[in-house]
Amino acid sequence: MLVVEQLPPDVRLPDYDRCRLRTRMVHIGFGAFHRAHQALCSDKLASDHGSDWGYCEVNLNSGELIAVLRAQSLLYTVTEMADDSLSTRVIGVVNAALHGQSDGIEAVIEAMSQPDVAIVSMTVTEKGYCHHPASGELNLQHPSIQHDLAHPDAPQSVPGVILAAIKRRQQRGLAPFSVMSCDNMPGNGHVTRQVIVQLARQQDSALAEYITRHLSFPSTMVDRIVPAMTPETLATLSDKLGCRDEAGVVCEPFFQWVIEDNFVSGRPAWENAGAELVDDVLPFEEMKLRMLNGSHSFLAYLGYLGGYQHISDCMADDHYLIAARQLMLAEQAPTLRTHDVDLTAYADSLIARYQNRAIRHRTYQIATDGSQKLPQRWLDSIRWHLKNGSRFDLLALGVAGWMRYVGGVDEQGATIVINDPLKDELARCVAATAEGAERVTALLSIRAIFGDDLAAQPQLVARVTDFLQQLQTLGARETVKQLMAHY
Ligand code: NAI
Ligand code: CS2
């Protein structure tokens, strides 16, 4: 357990009066990322600028971390690591924590319905929005949404829980809150508004109208590489701290947070702690999602198949490094709306971040939930190239790599455990088809991922089929090498 009194002297402790914090924000998704990003930024603000914006942290599924946090007086550590630097900070900005199941969903709704609460934010992964990834529409057939439609006062889903709190606040005559997604989706505020309003419409059209008029859903671009903790990283952290912090996270030093300045009931002055407040986040989000996350997913599938466990291992293979950089600059950058960013410098900075060997970012982790990630990372770019008649070989190889990966067997014949909300549909598709053009067309026909246009694009089908064949016969490393030799 984290014992603050025993920490080494170079660990920075909260130097502000934690009793002054008010619970003005409720955050759903106390995962690795939030701990090292939004919570850290708010902690700096409390420390350096006397902010009183504190968090109630909520997890709706697993309760383990909430229990750890409570046992540690709501404290945990964030450790920033690079090859040649390391610094740890104890985060003190949390002043309540709830687990949806053990504390009951009613306690969560009530926490969001307190007069002080001005912001509900979340990092619940793309699948937490219960939407169709290709269209952004609420998936009304989603089991949690079906449950919430039948039990609106005892919801399970993220949109359902937020909606119940909005309704309660409205009934009590309390000011509305802003709902801020910090998940990796383009227009994440728009997606959040859409799923909540669509769910409200199923229940009460006046409530849907109230939300449209009175709530705001600021979009954000969030960036910091925060890998899932493993027994090895936890052991390294314990050595450094002299105690075991089960809620501790290790991350890279880089931090970026671009926020649409659109809050209906106020916000912390995050700009004083490293965030940028802007009118339009979308160009930033698209740049980051296509160049960073798009190349991450490429490295995840091709890297995993090629036997590379971590992103930094992929970077030690020159062909993978060049492929990732070319994917960013030759195939993603042209699809972006122009704004004042030097995209070559941006790509080089991403490559440098990927080379950080102190961060053990697993290709398997990034390969998770591909069905939710592909549309915004690759598929809109592919549509752009098809329309413009330009080359998209690396994007097509990425799609082929994903198809080979969801085939469920690696290059050594071992099973790949697929972690994806659509895994049953993917498995059915794989079982019913032979590897080759038939499988490519079948997978491209999954509309929730590929929409209803991509399976009908012969150029895409042919390119992906060709790469899938190369992956089967040559393996991932050789396929990447040969493509880069002629790129
Ligand atoms: P994590 O696995 O540590 O945490 C995931 C959180 O989401 C957990 O709190 C879990 O309770 C919650 N969650 C998952 N599915 C849910 C569902 N269906 N309903 C309600 N809650 C659900 O993952 P991590 O690293 O915190 O990442 C979370 C998200 O943050 C990512 O998916 C991404 O969108 C965003 N992000 C992550 C970055 C990273 O480097 N880890 C960087 C930038 C963004
Ligand atoms: C990664 C991201 O897991 C993934 O899919 O691509 O979490 C990535 O590490 C972050 O977006 C970096 O900000």
Q: Can you describe what's shown?
A:
By secondary structure, the chain is an alpha/beta fold. It has two domains: 275 residues, NAD(P)-binding Rossmann-like Domain (Rossmann fold, 3-Layer(aba) Sandwich), CATH 3.40.50; 204 residues, N-(1-d-carboxylethyl)-l-norvaline Dehydrogenase, domain 2, CATH 1.10.1040.10. The protein is 48% helix and 12% strand. The chain is built from 21 helices and eleven strands. The protein has a five-stranded parallel sheet with strand order 5-2-1-6-7, with helices on both faces. Strand 3 and strand 4 form a beta hairpin. Helix 15 packs antiparallel against helix 16. The longest helix is centred in the middle third of the chain and has 24 residues. The site of 1,4-dihydronicotinamide adenine dinucleotide (NAI) has 24 residues, from helix 1.
CATH architectural label of the largest domain = 3-Layer(aba) Sandwich
Bound molecules: 1,4-dihydronicotinamide adenine dinucleotide, D-mannonic acid
Task: Kindly state the number of beta strands.
Answer: 11
The proportion of residues in beta strands is 5-15%
Assembly context of the chains: single chain
Radius of gyration: 23 Å
Helical amount: 40-55%
